[in-house]
Amino acid sequence: MTHQNYLEKNQEAIEQIKKLLESGEKHNIELAFQLIKGGGMVTELVTHLYALSIFYTDDDALKRRAKLYYKNMASADLYEFTKYKWNVYGEYYNENKMTEFLTKLGAHPEFDHKILANMALLYAHKGAKYCLENKTASPQKIIAQLIDQDMLDLDYLNLDTLPKEIGLFKQIKFLYLEGNNFTDIPDELAQLTQLQSLSYKNTPLTDKALQKLETFFPKIFATQYYMEVIDDINQGINYENSLQVLDKVLQLDATYATAWNDKGRVLQESKQPEAALECYDQYLKYAEYDNDRALSRVNKALALQNLGWHEELTKTAQEAMDILKQIPVGSRDRVYYFSQGLALFFMNDYNNALKAYDQGLAHDQYDGVLWYNKACTYAKQGNPTAMFQHLERAIQLRERFRIEASEDLDFKEYWADEDFLKIIKEA
């Protein structure tokens, strides 16, 4: 034995070199290559060197050097087995392809399939399915490599089982489980108390598993159910179903401010203004921002108007104005001007209500609600020309106003007007 081939009899040194090659650090890899150059070629390092020659992308020079060392160390049989597999990174970027690739390579007796897969995951960021299903390392260690700050993406890995060790990573806020094969989820997922987003599309979870998830993460499911009906609510359709879903949302998360507001809207438009009042008070209770708190007051005022409770209506409109005064100019958006316009409308200050609506339209000229509210205001002012113009535009932007206008008391004096009827029919 000479100084140049001392690694043959130094297992401790070989193990240190393995750790350097598995570290993921460029300077450690460079040090490992220096030790190999000075200590001789040992076949025990052949898996590491092949993995670097295939999966390492940070430095082409180091990759070429790994390939050279691999050629010198590999047996004739192994080299023949792998010589056409040098440029696979792009081809096998797909997770399923990587699994097939690792399975084929791992079948050769001179390769350590666990090391090969672990280094594929480390350097190519692929092979998670193979690693988890073949237990190439502890599930905790594998998952740790898959986490990006507060996100764990397991989409389309075709996993048959979801590792319970995910529950150990309590920093996870975003969990993606789409496109897998498992039907159940481990109870340990309940430990992800900071989770904000969860997706599981195209993963065949059973009803029991979904119920577990709903129990673990009620606020996430409340948001998912809410998103199922928000379009119907905005379009003014399927109110009965929307109410059922909103009730489920609020059972899961009683502090869901926007859901309280939309339940009030649905009840109000379903001719249940008294029931809507409580929803708007709950919206005020849980609303985080002043714009939303003001909106709760003007929506309540709408319900009070339908009930004919004029004294309470004026009081509620003034509450909205008091909240709006606290909002800095730089934070005044479309919702601010919508709320301001309605509050002024209920206080019979029609000129300033129109100005508020115009400022809202400056933020969004395609906002049908603001065009409709301007039409209501012009109707109150006795200005049919402007009223017809704005009502026509509102209907063009939102079909629902075709029906609402024919029932809205603000237009009562025009219900039999030929021009009004023409707009309702043809706009």
UniProtKB/TrEMBL annotation:
InterPro entries: LRR_dom_sf, TPR-like_helical_dom_sf, TPR_rpt, Ycf3/AcsC/BcsC/TPR_MFPF
Keyword Transmembrane helix: no
Keywords assigned: Repeat, TPR repeat
Keyword Repeat attributed: yes
Classification via SMART domains: TPR (SM00028)
Transmembrane segments: none
UniProt xrefs under PANTHER family: CELLULOSE SYNTHASE OPERON PROTEIN C, TPR REPEAT-CONTAINING PROTEIN MJ0798
The protein's name: TPR-domain containing protein
